[in-house]
């Protein structure tokens, strides 16, 4: 309503499934086609997939800025490597409190 377009992102069933590369590529294509300027992700799944797709979109000529988020002190061990990779791929990481920011600095 405020002049902001909303588009449906590709559906991803699993971070370890065969559809991950296709979903990342489709999202990267959408980011480029819609000339998205900012990608802001909020959890382990969107942090990983969206930051990866935004990096791919950059290789294809798009220039989105990437913001990942950390909102909890504790991360499940199985998600830790994906989150750490997403934080490294992001241009900025947003923490919702000082204690969560401290947990990022010590990671």
Note down, in words, how this protein is organized.
- With 107 residues, this protein is an alpha/beta fold.
- Helix content is 45%, strand content 12%.
- The protein is built from four helices and three strands.
- α1 (20-33) crosses α2 (44-59) and α2 packs parallel to α3.
- The longest helix is centred in the middle third of the chain and has 16 residues, at 44-59.
- The termini are far apart.
- The mean pLDDT is 84.
Question: What is shown here, in short?
Answer:
By secondary structure, the protein is α/β, with parallel strands linked by helices. It has helices spanning 20-33, 44-59, 80-89, 98-105; strands spanning 38-40, 65-70, 92-95.
- Count, helices: 4
The helix content is: 40-55%
Strand sequence of the main sheet, in spatial order? 1-2-3
Major β-sheet annotation = 3 strands, parallel
Principal-axes geometry comes out as: globular
* Beta strand count: 3
Tell me the β content: 5-15%
Distance between the termini: 40 Å
Low-confidence stretches: none
- What is the CA-atom radius of gyration, in angstroms? 14 Å
SSE pattern: HEHEHEH
Class of secondary structure makeup: alpha/beta
- Mean pLDDT figure: 84
Topology readout:
Elements: H1 20-33, E1 38-40, H2 44-59, E2 65-70, H3 80-89, E3 92-95, H4 98-105
Parallel strand pairs: 1-2, 2-3
Helix pairs in contact: 1-2, 2-3
Task: State the main characteristics.
alpha/beta, 107 residues, 4 helices, three-stranded parallel beta sheet
